[in-house]
Write a structure and sequence with these properties.
By secondary structure, the protein is α/β, with parallel strands linked by helices. The protein is built from 22 helices and 15 strands.
């Protein structure tokens, strides 16, 4: 009964709404290590704004619903803070909402128990109380509203003073980036711009052509395969020195393999990394994504039969559009079954490699190591145990890492079989494998998990990059073979290099080709590497806000920090 009386109190609802709306602001002041003036601004201005809005109407319940968008932002932000420990809701997070299928989202959310319980405890009572008060037509006293509004106006004035102090004392301070929830609103606007540009893509590329031409012998049978992994980090590959035998098959047969030791991704999000792996767009020229087609079309123009095979779900993004450019398209999960394993793609590749297509280009998009890791492999493939805990908490790290390492074992088996399939054709053949990004696995005191945080870490940037070449390829194109072997320890930006490297290895000429980005070209030179920021701006790697621990990981793994 006492609890119900509280639910009927408009003053309680007014004050509790302010408290729960301000939880992200207070948390962000600490997680983002804001300077004093910036922190005070981040408290005073939003608090005063919310108080003014709540004081505008007699029905506090109705005014709560006027603030529902900000309540949604607050709940979303709290979940992300539980997940990543820092950073505001970025553009990538909103785009993930539009491109992640419900099954994937449910996998993540059901394993964030404490985050979900927290937002339920904080925000559901406010919404329930507001509905009760609206239905019972409960209003708040006018003197209380006037007093609250006057205090809020004072808060605005003080907040403006603190804002001036923040601009004067904090280098590069910008309200649109630093002041929550204004920065989130700005990111919503940027998300809208992206979605509009993506919606216009089909008309923008209607007349586009790479003007691609083949240069290799027209009678020579050739196969080129681009394999895009999912969430695989290089430091968990035995091939890259990991203490566990996660890649026994690849390590047992390295004669035809070249693995690049210093490869990093330009994004830690699938919806940006995969399209840039499939196109000429890079962190430095991301806008090309909206006006050009993908590598599939370049190969098709050069006379190749093109095939796109995916173990991912369609998500109405550039990935789907690029896949549909192929002559043959297969998304395994179009049958409605969520639990296909990557190995199921191999029966399709075996048929393709032994078909009568003289020139063949295949893209394989794996599901690899996507969370929930335990669902990416059958029970019989579980080598590292225990692997049954899936709740995203640091205390489950041992089990989560075991399951993650089992997914790398699965990728090892898929790649090994694929390379043997190519070898058995006795054709000119090349396969390039890399992952879209890595993954955080509660690796250090930050307790970061998964990927896609607006602030990347070493763990979701360092990715495997492996090239397989057949003996007939080496014999037919010894210069390209020698070149990629010579640069295997040079720094690589995967999203910048894949498009141009694959074109050169296959002898496809196009004005879109850039020799300095091709690992198979003598002109290749990686002068500086970039990360594609949440606002789609190229940030030089040394300028990223990486922790001292991240920088140490770069050094310890021999990655050039430039």
């Amino acid at each position: 009964m006492k609890l119900f009386r509280i639910f009927l109190s408009p003053r309680w609802l007014f004050l509790w709404t302010l408290v729960v709306l301000m939880v992200p602001n207070v948390w962000l002041c600490f997680s983002e290590q804001m300077p004093l003036w910036a922190a005070l601004t981040n408290i005073l201005l939003p608090l005063s704004f919310y108080a003014i809005v709540l004081s505008l109407g007699r029905s506090t319940g109705k005014m709560v619903w006027w603030l529902f968008l900000f309540i949604f932002f607050a709940a979303f932000q709290v979940v992300l803070l539980f997940l990543f420990g820092n950073s505001i809701i970025g553009v990538d997070m909103f785009l993930n909402l539009t491109t992640t299928n419900p099954a994937e989202a449910l996998e993540v959310l059901t394993n964030l128990l404490w985050g979900i319980l927290t937002i339920v405890a904080l925000y559901v009572p406010v919404l329930v109380a507001s509905i009760i008060q609206i239905r019972k037509k409960i209003v708040i006293a006018r003197p209380f509203r006037i007093k609250a509004r006057l205090l809020a106006i004072v808060g605005v004035l003080l907040g403006i003073g603190c804002l001036v102090g923040a601009y004067k004392t904090t280098p590069n301070y910008k309200v649109r980036n630093e002041l929550y929830p204004l920065n989130v609103c700005y990111n919503v606007w940027l998300t809208g711009k992206h979605l509009v540009a993506e919606h216009r893509y089909d008309s923008a590329v209607a007349e586009f052509a790479f003007q691609a031409k083949p240069t290799h012998d027209a009678d020579e049978p050739e196969i080129y395969v681009l394999v895009i992994g999912e969430t695989a980090r290089a430091d968990h590959f035995g091939l890259y020195g990991y203490e566990r035998p996660t890649t026994p098959m690849l390590q047992n047969d390295t004669a035809r393999l070249i693995w690049f030791t210093d490869a990093i991704a330009q994004s830690n999000t699938t919806h940006k990394s995969v399209p840039t792996l499939l196109s000429a767009a890079t962190a430095q020229d991301y806008s090309r994504l909206y006006r050009e087609r993908s590598i599939v079309t370049a190969f098709k123009e050069a006379g190749f039969h093109t095939v796109y095979l995916s173990n991912q779900r369609r998500n109405h993004s550039f990935i789907d559009r690029f896949g549909e450019e192929a002559d043959e398209v297969l998304f395994l999960k179009d049958d409605g079954n969520t639990y296909h394993y990557d190995s199921e793609l191999l029966s399709h590749t075996n048929l393709l490699f032994n078909s009568d297509h003289r020139k063949l280009f295949v893209v394989l998009h794996l599901y690899g190591s996507h969370f929930n890791y335990r669902e990416r492999y059958p029970d019989t493939a579980a080598k590292f145990l225990p692997d049954d805990a899936s709740e995203a908490v640091a205390s489950n790290r041992e089990s989560l890492v075991n399951a993650y390492d089992n997914t790398i074992l699965g990728t090892d088996a898929v790649l090994n079989t694929l390379f043997h399939q190519l070898n058995n054709t006795n054709k000119v053949a090349v396969a390039l494998y890399t992952s879209d990004h890595g993954e955080n696995l509660f690796d250090d005191e930050r307790h970061l998990f998964l990927h896609a945080s607006p602030r990347p870490s070493y763990y979701d940037l360092h990715v495997p990059f492996i090239i397989y070449t057949s003996m007939p390829y080496e014999q037919a194109h010894p210069q390209q073979q020698a070149r990629i072997e010579a640069v295997r320890h040079e720094p690589v930006s995967t999203n910048a290099a894949v498009f141009h490297t694959m074109l050169e290895l296959a002898g496809v000429q196009t004005p879109a080709f850039t020799d300095t980005l091709s690992l198979a070209n003598p002109a290749y030179k990686c002068t500086r590497r970039y990360y594609l920021s949440d606002h789609c701006a190229p940030i030089p790697i040394p300028q990223l806000k990486l922790s001292d621990g991240d920088r140490q990981q770069f050094r310890s793994h021999g990655l050039l920090f430039k």
